[in-house]
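User: Structure tokens for this complex, please. No commentary.
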Amino acid sequence: MVKAALVVTHALALALLVPGPALAQRALAELACTPTKTDFIYDCVIHLTRGGQALTGARITVGADMPSMPMAHNVRPVEATPGKIPGEYQAMLDLEMPGEWAVKLRLAGPVRDQLILLYDFDDKGAHPVTRSGRPHRK
Amino acid sequence: MLADLVQNTLDGLAAGSAYALLAVGFTLIFGVLRRVNLCYGPAIMLGCYAATFVHLSFGAGLLVLALVCVLASVLAGGYVERLCFAPHRKGSGIAAMVASFALWMQLEEVAILALPKHLYPFPALYDGKPIDLAGFTIRVEALVMLGAASVVCAALWWVLYRTRFGIAARAVIDSPLAAELSGISVPRVSMGVFALASAIGGLAGFLVSASFEQVTPMLGMWSTFKGLLAMMLGGLGSLPGAVAGALVLGLVEAHSQWFLGPQLRDLLAFLMLFMLLAIGPRWMTTR
Amino acid sequence: MDDYAVGVLTNIGLFGFLAISAYLLLLAGEMSFGQQAFFGVGAYSGGMLTAMGGWPLPLAVVAAMLLGALAALMVALPTLRLRGLYFAMATLAAAEMARIGFELLHWQVELEGEQTGPDGTQGFRGIRWVLENGIEPGAYLAIIWLVLAMVVGVVIALERTRLGATLRGVGEDPELAAALGVDVTRFKLGVAAAAGALAALGGVLYAHHNTYVEPRNFDIMLGVHSLAYALIGGLGTVFGPLLGVLVDIGLLEGSRVFQGYRMIVFGGLVALLLVFRPRGLLDERTVIWLRRRLSSLTPWR
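Assistant:
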């Protein structure tokens, strides 16, 4: 009985979620940021791939929010410019303070998607965050 | 199994001592002001940050750092008292508490701006190996914490029962109106108790930072939660209750962390408080 | 409208739900440190329904609101008889339990070759209903504000009825209200449920705006902020909490003057303002004064 319900739910989910071909394969992104002379402005390079190959010609709008204080920061979204290598894009990110940020990449162009990347920004740059099982206070 | 229980109990008592200092501070402020100071933890954190700054800039010794921490906490506490509690003494309790957490947000940002890193090293309280007693590990820091808490409690008792200031404080705690009618300056006493509570909190912060050998921006929130939990568990407004509640909290945490892990440890602590409040004694419910 | 303005206005709108949620309880005389938990309940349940269950957003919103109300009742039932401070602490404890609950929630299903669902502290990614249905940020902003406007309209309408008067009466003087025949506890339970539903509404909309939520989003800072907004904006009208949100996220955050110092300024501002206006900017007296001015300008009302 439960199994049947699960099968039905999965089928329903799949049926309702049949996307257009553009969304069938998700894009993946990686961020590499270096601090600039101005406090909390970072020079970021985005590596965009899809299906293992570099994704070119995408229009990326880069925004950010802090997971620990959602909706409280209004980082000005910037449009990324294509970099030298295909699949590479550059953007200057103006964050107000160091710490953990959820960088939001809104893709338009060949793929419409929204990617969230968690990075820890400090005076050395951006480091990817992997959440452990520990809660965030002592 | 028994060894684990005993070890956990020892660890729990050590943590409980730190919580006891925090809870006592909260209770003192609640006693004279009938309000919860939600900026107590952040003020302590500023004290620890000041000590960290001194440590990083001048490499001062532990005693100096302790002094700096206590003094800075008292100063920060004074700022909070003047801005959040003095103006609302006769007025709205909600406004005072909301003001205190507005300052909480403010002081947290001050701390993050002053020292932006996630973690700062703090000199260790004790540099040697823990004591091995009959197979149980006793950290010297734990003994210091227990000792400090005991000394502070004894000193507090002496202040409250053997000094004029203490008698005035107890009078205000009992009934501010009656105290005022007896000629006691309630604002003065409140300020004094606030400073005392901040000093105790500063000491607690220093001991915790030195025990863990680190200072993080989470210290403010941590102190607030632990102190509040302990105070409420022991019955709001009672000093012996605060100490008892703190020790219970420490013990429950130590045992549940061992058997259930850190998340369930915190969950259990909050559940304990919620259950206590939900089932709670009569005096909590009369409006 | 440029991306930045859309983003700011979206945040203001979303926070508005939380602030009004806290405001309703404050009117009833209760201070809740826990509304962020219901925001989280709305976010997680709404997200799970659309991302894992394939529900359309409007249905998920309704379900999320019901769950938010239910959760609020679960917290309020055992605790409303408590005195103000104890109730506040109980809501704090409940909210933290909820947040830890989200940290422990691991439930993923495989959809299109991807694991979708809440994954404890790693968070809940892939809440993509808005994205997949081609709703642009500008359009979603309009939806959020439309819903917010409806909520504000309902609250304003209710405030003019006896319900509104009872609400303020219960908050100001519960003994008097009880003597006048109001079942104070039952009434407050209703308010708690409504506030919970409202917070959950904000939460589900937030989750779909962000496409990603994690337990850390719903910690005490969110609740503390919403209380501060409600109280600084003023308890005289439902526009008060919105004003509070506007002052912080709109004014202070929007003007880059205070970059990095915003909390210092806002925190100090709140504390100072409360010295002179303990019930906020748009407190009851100001609202009455404003109403008189407005009615003198429109004598036909």
